[in-house]
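hey team, just a heads up i'm posting the complex here instead of the shared drive bc the drive is being weird again. everything in one block, sequence lines first with there labels, then the predicted structure for the whole assembly after. its two chains so it's a bit long, scroll down
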Amino acid sequence: MLPEEIEISQNISVNIQAFFNSSDYDKVAVLVDENTRLYCLPLVHKAIKPTDIIEIKSGEEQKTLDTCIHIWKELTDNHFERKSLLVNLGGGVIGDMGGFCAATYKRGIDFVNIPTTLLSQVDASVGGKLGVDFLGFKNHIGVFEDPEKVFIDTKFLNTLPARELRSGFAEVIKHCLIADASYWEMISAVDFKDQNWSGIVKHSVDVKKKVVEEDPFEKGLRKILNFGHTIGHAIESYFLQKDEKRLLHGEAIAAGMICETYLSAKYCDLPESSVKNIEAYILKTFGRILISKDDIEEITLLCLQDKKNEKGVINFSLLKDIGNSVFNVGVEQNEIRKVLQLYAQH
Amino acid sequence: MLPEEIEISQNISVNIQAFFNSSDYDKVAVLVDENTRLYCLPLVHKAIKPTDIIEIKSGEEQKTLDTCIHIWKELTDNHFERKSLLVNLGGGVIGDMGGFCAATYKRGIDFVNIPTTLLSQVDASVGGKLGVDFLGFKNHIGVFEDPEKVFIDTKFLNTLPARELRSGFAEVIKHCLIADASYWEMISAVDFKDQNWSGIVKHSVDVKKKVVEEDPFEKGLRKILNFGHTIGHAIESYFLQKDEKRLLHGEAIAAGMICETYLSAKYCDLPESSVKNIEAYILKTFGRILISKDDIEEITLLCLQDKKNEKGVINFSLLKDIGNSVFNVGVEQNEIRKVLQLYAQH
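-- predicted structure starts here --
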C-alpha cells in the first residue's frame, strides 16, 4: 500500500484537480525549468491553473542560494502569503530547492511536488530532504519538511533523454540492493531500457517510504538509503567543480555503489558472488567513469565532508548480502582510497 | 513553573557547565558580535570552552543571507558535523540568525541560545522563530526550530546601553497588555529604569511560553503575541531602509502598540480609559517617533506584506481590555492610515 500523500497514476491531472478542488489556496506558483516548462507543464497546466510561473535554468549547478534568492524574490514580488502554494514541477533540483524555498519563505508555506524524472520520482519525492548545494558540497544547506502532496505520473518519463532515465535507475538498483533481493533478481535480468517503469516506481517509492517512516530524521535505519552515496556524492561533488566532465547524480552513485560493494565485502562479508553480480550489472548499465590517480586523492578527502561523518570516522551503509544492509560501519580513509583505486583500475 | 529547557539564573555559568558535562558534542562554536565578544563572552567562556568563535558585526542590518553565508562558511571550514553545536551569544539578531544557520546547516545541527539583551531574553529566546530579513522585510526567510537549551542570566542586562534595555521593555509591556492586567498595573506604576528585571524576565518568559506551547506554529492563539507588531514591523522595516533614522525594534513596537491600541478601541471596544492609560505610559517611556505624511503612506503599504495578511485582508491581534486579547481581527487599509495619522498627530 502506498501512503495517501503520494499519488501515482498514469493520468495525474485528475488527482491534481481533485486536490485543488478540496483546498483553498489564494495563489499558486509553479516552479519549472526550461525543459519542464516546455514538456511537462502543458500536461498539468489546466489542472493547476497557476497564478504565477517561476522559471529557473535546469541543471545541478543551479541548485544554489543565488537561485533561491531569485525564487524568494518572485514569491515576494507576487505577494505570496502563508495561504499560498508552490508547486515544484521537475526533477530533484526543482523539488529539493523549491521545497527548501517554500519551507523557509515566511517560515514556511505549503508546497506540492510533481517529480518528472525517474530519479526524483523514486528518490527525491519521498523523505522530506530539502536543500541546496553550498561551496561545492551537495545539499549542504537545507531542512527536513514534507510536501502536502506528491503526484507521480510515469507518463513524464517519456519526456526524458535516455541518459536521465538511466541516472534515476541507479536509485532503483539501490533500493533493491538494500532491501529486496527478489526484486533485484527481477530487474537485473532485464536491460535497463526494457524495464517496467510503472511497477518499478511503485516498488521504489514503497521501499523508501517504509524506511523513512520508521526514521524520518536519519537517526538510524534511514542511513541505509545512503548506500553508494558516501563515495558517490564525493565523486559527484568533485566532478561538479571540474567543468569538462559533467556527471549525472545516478552516474556518480552507480560508481559509488560499486566502490561501496567492495567495502561491503571487506567489512560485512558480502559474498564474492554477490560482488561480481552487482559489479557486472552496474558496469553493463553505466560503464566505468575515468578517474585518475590525482582524482582519487581529492575524492577521498571530499568523503570527510560527508554528513554521516562523526568525529572524523566515516560511517558507511553497506551490504551484508543483497537485500540486507547495515549502517554505521566505520571505515578508514585509506580503505576508501583503495576501493577507488580498484574501481578506477589503478 | 518555567519549562526545563529555559534556565534562568543569576550565575548561569553553573548551568551551562552542567549542560556540557552531560552532553557529547565534538565541536562547539560560539556566535558573537563585537559587543558580546567583549562584554559577555568572558562571563561564560570557561563554561563553554568553545572550539571556534564566529564573530559578526552587530546590528539589525547584518541580519541577512550574506551574513548567513559567512556563518555557514565558517562552520564548513571548521568541519562542523551533525554532532557539533552552535551557541548563540547575543541579542535577537544573533539568536534568530544563528538559530536559522544551525537549523539549516547540513539540514540541522543543535544550537543553544544565551540571550544577552532584555529583548531577546523575554521574546526571541522562546518560541522557535528563526530567520533573517530579506529585501527589507523582517524575518522574511526562516524556519521554526527550538534550541536545545536557553540560558538566561539577568546579569547580562548590566552590559546594555539604556536605550537597548528600553527597547526590550516594549515586549514586557506587550506581554502584560495581552495577558496579565495585574502585572501591567505593577509595571506601569514604576519608571522603566527602576523595574525589577529578574522578576520581569521570569514573568515575560512564562507568558510567552504558555502561549507558544499551546500553538507552536501560529495557527491561532499565538497570533496574540503580534499585538503592536503588524504596524510596528512596518515602521521598523520602513526606517531600516532610511539610513538617517535608526530605530530599535522595541521603539518601533512601542509606536505600533499605540497605533494598535487605537485600533482596539475602534474594533474591539477597548475602554477609552485603558487607551489613555496605555498611550500615556508608552509615550512617557519611549517618546513619540516623528512620522511625516509621506512616511504614513509607505508604512501603510508595508503592512500589506505582513505574514498575518490573508487574501489582502490585514489581520490584527488587538485588545478587548488590558490583559485580554483577540486575534484575526480584519482591518481595512484606510484604518491603518488613520491610526498612523493619529499617532503622528497629522
